[in-house]
Please model this.
Amino acid sequence: MTIRWYPGHMSKAQEKIAEAIRKIDLIIEVLDARLPFSSSNHQLDEMRRSKPCIKILNKHDLADPAITRAWVSFYEREAGVKALPMSARLHGDVQQLIKLCQRTVPHRGRPGWPLRVMVFGIPNTGKSTLINTMAGKSMAKVGDKPAITTCGQQVDLRNGIVLSDTPGILWPNMDDQDVAYRLATSGAIGASALDYTCVGIFAAEYMMRRYPDLIGERYKLTDLPETPEAVLEAIGRRLGCLATGGVVDIHRAAEAFLRELRAGKIGRISFEEPGKNVVVDDVVASIETQSNGATE
Ligand SMILES: Nc1nc2c(ncn2[C@@H]2O[C@H](COP(=O)(O)OP(=O)(O)O)[C@@H](O)[C@H]2O)c(=O)[nH]1
Ligand SMILES: [Mg+2]
Model:
């Protein structure tokens, strides 16, 4: 399905984002490298029009490196878009990002002509972490709950760049159930939104299909059970999530398994690949139709 956006139908939040975009030279969109599609907001792509955009694939340290490379190629096919895998916690990675910002908008960044940059993204992708590392000090609260974008201050980074100290908080697209489950698996949306056990079963099923060896290795399971419920139960047993009578407490098992998965304990895992995802295929098809059937 193609999301259509018309100025007349803009919500207050969209209006604020569009206004913020008008005042800057470059958009940094923070995506979660493990799920770049599900952690993006497709309306931002429509609102940005021709404004240059760097999509950072953050939490690269947790994602499958080969799949992240595929995402970089996928995004860089779009005009005006650059993609950079990185970790917002690492100073060296952020320096690379700063250089890319300067290269992307070379006509700005002189005295009187600062390169005005703002960070956008859905909750929990690492926007506050990125702003703090870029600014070299603690400007934004890390790990905070989604909040409304306020009129931010500009921080002079003293390298030609001025950065808005407040990120543009975007909303995830939760219409698609798969997207919602992937976001929940990554920790982007709270446990209250979806049943923890269901999320654990979803994650177990995905891991069985895509990364069976990692699961086998981490939990010393030579033969993986056949159903995701049984896999989660076996994991729960390994992690000592037992109720009275020695039966596995499946809710606690799901919690413990998701905690390990999110912390990267099982390995570097990606939850979606470009082109191999029905939803992504639809988006690609709609992009191609919009550009008058032009094919790559
Ligand atoms: N592993 C890893 N975790 C990160 C990275 N960047 C941010 N985080 C963590 O992700 C969580 C959300 O980060 P935060 O900056 O508050 O996200 P925001 O909601 O987009 O502002 C925090 O626990 C961060 O420590 C990264 O590059 N790698
Ligand atoms: Mg934040």
Summary: DSSP finds eleven helices and seven strands in the chain. Residues 124 and 144 are 8 Å apart (CA to CA). The pocket of guanosine-5'-diphosphate (ligand 1) is lined by residues 58-59, 61-62, 87-89, 121, 123-129, 142-144 (CB under 6 Å). The chain has two domains: 7-172, 177-210+212-262.
